[in-house]
Amino acid sequence: MGPTQGKELSPQMRDRVLKLFARFDVDGSKSIEKSETIKYWKSNFAKLNTEELFKSVDTDNSGTISEEEWLNFWTSVLRSGHTEEDIADELESIESGSSWVKFENLDKKKG
């Protein structure tokens, strides 16, 4: 097992990730729907951002993103070698309305 495989988000980062989840989840259903992300981004790129977000995070292809999928995604970002500082920068960027960034190499297993 590589040095990053067992990493978990710190409690502070987990809270931060869930705060962003709640900003998307405007109806409080504990799942993010495409209509919610399109409203969130409001821009010309809202549909593109939504498609990229769902391709990356909606692992069961249900058309919604659960809290568990959301947390698993950010944990996989951490485990792929990104730091919590990288994640915090990305969360801040998304919170300010910037586009969804596709993280590379998340599915590759090291070992």
TrEMBL record:
PROSITE patterns in the record: EF_HAND_1, EF_HAND_2
Pfam family, one: EF-hand_7
SMART domains: EFh
Boundaries of every EF-hand domain copy: 45-80
MF terms (GO), sorted A to Z: calcium ion binding
Source domain of life: Eukaryota
Protein name: EF-hand domain-containing protein
Species name: Paramecium octaurelia
